[in-house]
Automatic annotation (TrEMBL), chain A:
This is Syntaxin-31 isoform X1. One of its GO terms (cellular component) is Golgi membrane. InterPro entries: SNARE, Syntaxin, Syntaxin-5_N, Syntaxin/epimorphin_CS, T_SNARE_dom. Keywords: Membrane, Protein transport, Transmembrane, Transmembrane helix, Transport.
TrEMBL record, chain B:
Residues 7-113 form the Longin domain. It is a lipid-anchor. It comes from Arachis duranensis. The keyword Cell membrane applies. This is VAMP-like protein YKT61.
Length: 341, 203
C-alpha cells in the first residue's frame, strides 16, 4: 500500500480552471488574468498545507501497516515456539520495536489532529474538507487501535504458551533430574560458570532470562519470578568458606527481589481494579440510558394501547352510531332521488 | 519437588574444631521412593551426610551443598542446626524459610533443654514428621511464593474479567441502540393510533 489516499488535487484544480474560464468568458479578457493570479498565489500555500496533511496521514497509514505486519510475524513466532527452541531474544526485540513504533504512531496521530484543528481554525475551508480530515483521523485511529488489540492478543497467547511449556518442563524435569547430576559429578570444575550465568533472577513476563539457554534444567524453577539461587560447588571435601558469604547475601537479595516483585504485582493489580471500576461506571451510565428508553417506549405503547381500546369500545357497542350512519345514508339517498326524479 | 529428610542437630562451636560429630535432636526421613531393602542403608547414609554437613556449617550461617541429585540445606544458629535434604528443584529460599520455621518451633517446644543433650535422641518429634509431609510443596513453606502464585492467578482472572466487561460494554451499546429504535417505533405507533382514533371522534 503505497499511500492511504489518492491525491486528486491536480484534477480538482483543472476542473476549477475550466469552471472559472466558463464564468469569466462574458467579462473582458484582461480581467480574468488578474483575479486568476491572485487566487493562484493564495492557492499555492493552500495545496501545500493540504498535501502536508495528506502526506502525514499517508505516512501514518504506512507506519500502521508496517506495524501490523510485524505484529503478524510476532504472532507466528509466538505460536510456533516450542519447548526447546524458544526464539526468546527475537520475540523480546520485536515486542520492544513494535511498542516503540506504536508510541511513535500515537504521537504522530495526535500531531495530525492538531494540524487538522489548526486548519479548521483558519476558517477558510469548506465543510467537505473538514469532514474528510475528520474521517481520515478516525480511520487512522481505529486502525491503530486494532493493531494494539492484536498485539495484546499475541502477548496473551505467548504468556499462555510459556506457562504451558513451564508446566510440561516441570513434569519432565522430575524424571530427568536423576540423569543430570551424573553429568555434574565428573566435571566439578566446570559447574560454577554455567551456574553463575543462571544466577540472574528471572524477571517478569516480557523478559525471560537466559535460564533455558543451558538446556539443562539446573535450578529451573516453577515460576518465572523466582530468584534462582544456586548453591556453591558440591563436593564435601572442598572448603566452602569463601562461597558461604555471598550465599548469605544471595539469600537476602533473593528475598528482597521476591518482595519487590510481589509489591509491583500488587500495584499492577490495583491499577487493573481502578480500570475495571471506571469501565463499570461508564457502562452503568449506558444501562441508565437503556432504562430510560424502555420507559419511554412503555409509556408510548401504553398510550397507544389505551387509545385503541377506546376506539374499539366506541365502535363496538354503539347502536346510536349505527342509527346515525343509516340516517345519513337515507338522507343522501332521498336527496339524490329527489334531484333526479 | 521432594523433601527427603529433615533434621535438627546440635552442633557446638567445638564440633567444628575437634572433629566430634554433631548430635541429632530430631529426625524425620521419607525414604519411600527407594526399594524396600535399600531403605535402611539409605537412611543411615542420609544421617551421615547430615552430620557431616552440620559439622561444617559455621555458626550463624546458611549453607547449601549439592550431593549427587540432592541438595542439603543447613542453617546453623547459635549451635542449633536445622538441616534439610531436598532435591534440586526445591527452591532454595523456601528451603531456608522452612528450616527457620522448624528451628523456631523446636525452640518454642523444647526451650533450651537441648543444650544438655550429649547423645543422639531417638524420640521422634511429631511436628517434624508432619512438616515433612506438609511442606513437600514449596508453596506451603514459603509464603512469598504462595503470595506470588496467588497474585499471578488473580491477575489472570482480572484480565479475563476485564475482557468480559468489555464484551458487556459492547452488548450494552447494541442494547442502547435497539432500545432507542424501539422507543422511536413506539412513538410512531402512538401517533398512528391517535390519528385513527381522531377521525372517528368527529362522527
Amino acid at each position: 500500500m503505497a499511500s492511504a489516499f489518492r491525491d486528486r488535487t491536480s484534477e480538482f484544480r483543472s476542473v476549477t480552471e475550466t469552471l472559472k474560464k466558463k464564468i469569466g468568458a462574458p467579462t473582458p479578457p484582461p480581467l480574468p488574468n488578474q483575479p486568476e493570479n491572485a487566487p493562484s498565489s493564495t492557492d499555492s500555500p493552500v495545496p501545500n498545507s493540504r498535501s502536508e496533511f495528506n502526506r502525514k496521514a499517508s505516512r501514518i497509514g504506512l507506519g500502521i501497516h508496517d506495524t501490523s505486519q510485524k505484529i503478524a510475524r510476532l504472532a507466528q513466532l509466538a505460536k510456533k515456539s516450542s519447548i526447546f527452541n524458544d526464539p526468546i531474544v527475537e520475540i523480546q526485540e520485536m515486542t520492544a520495536v513494535i511498542k516503540n513504533e506504536i508510541t511513535a504512531l500515537n504521537a504522530a496521530l495526535s500531531d495530525l489532529q492538531t494540524i487538522q484543528n489548526m486548519e479548521i481554525a483558519d476558517g477558510m475551508y469548506s465543510e467537505d474538507r473538514v469532514v474528510h480530515s475528520n474521517a481520515v483521523c478516525d480511520d487512522l485511529k481505529s486502525r491503530l487501535m486494532g493493531a494494539t488489540k492484536k498485539l495484546q492478543d499475541v502477548l496473551t497467547t505467548r504468556t499462555e504458551n510459556i506457562k504451558a511449556h513451564e508446566n510440561r518442563k516441570q513434569i519432565f524435569s522430575k524424571n530427568t533430574s536423576r540423569e543430570n547430576p551424573f553429568q555434574h559429578h565428573p566435571k566439578p570444575a566446570h559447574v560454577p560458570p554455567p551456574w553463575s550465568n543462571s544466577l540472574n533472577p528471572s524477571e517478569d513476563l516480557q523478559q525471560q532470562s537466559a535460564l533455558t539457554s543451558n538446556g539443562v534444567p539446573v535450578g529451573n524453577q516453577l515460576r518465572r519470578r523466582l530468584a534462582v539461587d544456586n548453591a556453591p560447588t558440591p563436593q564435601m571435601e572442598m572448603s566452602m568458606v569463601q562461597q558461604v558469604v555471598p550465599h548469605q547475601d544471595n539469600y537476602a537479595q533473593s528475598r528482597a527481589t521476591a518482595l519487590h516483585s510481589v509489591e509491583s504485582t500488587i500495584t499492577e493489580l490495583s491499577g487493573i481494579f481502578t480500570h475495571l471500576a471506571t469501565m463499570v461506571a461508564q457502562q452503568g451510565e449506558l444501562a441508565i440510558r437503556i432504562d430510560d428508553n424502555m420507559e419511554e417506549t412503555l409509556a408510548n405503547v401504553d398510550g397507544a394501547h389505551s387509545s385503541l381500546l377506546r376506539h374499539l369500545n366506541r365502535i363496538s357497542s354503539n347502536r346510536w352510531l349505527l342509527i346515525k350512519i343509516f340516517a345519513i345514508l337515507i338522507f343522501f339517498l332521498m336527496i339524490f332521488i329527489f334531484f333526479v326524479a | 519437588m521432594k523433601i527427603t529428610a529433615l533434621f535438627v542437630l546440635k552442633c557446638n562451636a567445638t564440633t567444628t574444631t575437634d572433629g566430634s560429630d554433631p548430635l541429632i535432636l530430631a529426625n524425620a526421613t521419607d525414604v519411600s521412593q527407594f526399594g524396600y531393602f535399600q531403605r535402611s542403608s539409605v537412611r543411615e547414609f542420609i544421617v551421615f551426610i547430615a552430620r557431616t554437613v552440620a559439622k561444617r556449617t559455621p555458626q550463624g550461617q546458611r549453607q547449601s551443598v549439592q550431593h549427587e541429585e540432592y541438595k542439603v540445606h543447613a542453617y546453623n544458629r547459635n549451635g542449633l542446626c536445622a538441616l534439610g535434604v531436598m532435591d534440586d528443584h526445591y527452591p532454595v529460599r523456601s528451603a531456608f524459610s522452612l528450616l527457620n520455621k522448624v528451628m523456631d518451633e523446636y525452640q518454642k517446644s523444647f526451650g533450651e533443654s537441648w543444650r544438655t543433650v550429649d547423645k543422639d535422641s531417638t524420640q521422634s518429634w511429631p511436628f517434624l514428621d508432619e512438616a515433612l509431609i506438609k511442606f513437600q510443596d514449596p508453596h506451603e513453606a514459603d509464603k512469598l511464593l504462595k503470595i506470588q502464585k496467588d497474585l499471578d492467578e488473580t491477575k489472570i482472572i482480572l484480565h479475563q474479567t476485564i475482557e468480559s466487561v468489555l464484551a458487556r460494554g459492547e452488548k450494552l451499546d447494541s442494547l442502547v441502540e435497539k432500545s432507542s429504535d424501539l422507543s422511536a417505533a413506539s412513538q410512531m405507533f402512538y401517533k398512528q393510533a391517535k390519528q385513527t382514533n381522531q377521525c372517528c371522534t368527529v362522527l
